[in-house]
Write a structure and sequence with these properties.
CATH class: Mainly Alpha
Membrane topology: Multi-pass membrane protein
Number of strands: 0
Organism: Marinobacter fuscus
CATH topology: MetI-like fold
Order of helices and strands: HHHHHHHHHHHHH
Strand content: under 5%
Structural class: mainly alpha
Number of helices: 13
Helix content: over 70%
CATH architecture: Orthogonal Bundle
Subcellular location: Cell membrane
Keywords: Cell membrane, Membrane, Transmembrane, Transmembrane helix, Transport
CATH superfamily: MetI-like
Shape: elongated
Distance between the termini: 32 Å
Largest sheet: none
Family: Belongs to the binding-protein-dependent transport system permease family.
Length: about 300
């Protein structure tokens, strides 16, 4: 590493952020678990024993094999197989990748819409503020899942099951992203209302800077802390929303595994004794959402000195 890189790394290690992180064992463990899950999902094609998308590798005669250690198990399938004969470990790795893609993609869309509308409402005020916030209030009066179900049902009826299956990932990112943007918009608006009264904004106006530059170059960087906290929690919410929609048949199809579609595919086989098809992906989903929420809680406490007790 170069001298500059080493210097930046040393400053980071000495920073309050790094100090508080290494002292919080829950945050460290959550981060390690999350990184392991993310890396496993990213490198799923290299780590998975089989490709769940390759029909040539699927044998229906291997369907509903139990995990290793139970009677009738096969060492070639450590976590067993699902009703279609797919290796459950492979489908979980690929399914986690799909769920993470939808979670991160939806939050990026939420952030873009929320930051844009929040900046406009907070800085410009007046009728623009009234219209945007009333739209946000109306949307917040409905639950996120209800909005996602309505929009998802309309898209699925419009495109048909086959077409919807091909673009399901992009549709879910759009549906969940559009359903959740008011959370970020209201937070950004509140921060902007406080920031625009400060002297550096008045100085920027006196220097003749335009409105877009003042909003995006000067005010926005000072409102990022709460956005990071909300975005972390929203990733977990987006993953849960995807799982719920998939379970209801409005999300990922069973041929394109996500954690939600895997849980749904095995739900009908619980009473027949094939509990692992639903239980194991369900545990992975719980752990994934839990570690993200724990990191979000830690980030919230660190970025708010009034709450941090470390």
């Amino acid at each position: 590493m170069t001298t500059a890189t080493v210097s930046r790394w040393d400053r980071f290690r000495e920073s309050f952020f790094w100090y508080s992180f290494k002292r919080d064992k829950v945050a460290v463990i959550s981060f390690v678990v999350l990184m392991l899950m993310v890396l496993s999902a990213v490198f799923a094609p290299l780590l998975a024993p089989a490709d769940p998308y390759d029909l040539a590798q699927i044998d229906i005669l291997n369907s509903e094999l139990p995990p290793v250690g139970l009677d009738g198990s096969d060492p070639a399938f450590p976590l067993g197989t699902d009703a279609q004969g797919r290796d459950l470990l492979s489908t979980i790795l690929y399914g986690t990748r799909v769920s993470l893609m939808i979670g991160f993609g939806a939050v990026v869309l939420q952030a873009v819409l929320g930051i844009l509308f929040g900046l406009l409402a907070g800085y410009l005020g007046g009728k623009i503020d009234a219209v945007l916030m009333r739209i946000a209030d109306v949307q917040l009066s409905f639950s996120t899942l209800m909005v996602a179900i309505i929009v998802g049902a309309v898209f699925k009826a419009s495109f048909g099951n086959l077409m919807f299956g091909e673009i399901a990932i992009y549709m879910l990112i759009f549906i969940i992203g559009v359903a959740e943007w008011p959370q970020i918009a209201r937070t950004v608006r509140a921060s902007v209302l406080a920031e625009k009264k400060k002297e550096y904004v008045d100085a920027a106006k006196v220097m003749g800077f335009g409105t877009p530059r003042i909003m995006f170059r000067h005010i926005l960087p000072n409102t990022l802390s709460p956005i990071f906290v909300i975005a972390t929690v929203q990733i977990a919410n987006a993953i849960i929303s995807e799982a719920a929609l998939s379970f209801l048949g409005l999300g990922m199809p069973e041929t394109q595994p996500s954690l939600g579609s895997l849980i749904k595919s095995g739900f009908d086989y619980i009473q027949s004794g094939s509990w692992w098809i639903t239980l194991i992906p369900g545990l992975v989903l719980v752990v994934l959402v839990l570690v993200i929420n724990l990191l979000g809680d830690w980030l919230r406490d660190v970025m708010n000195p009034r709450l941090y007790k470390g």
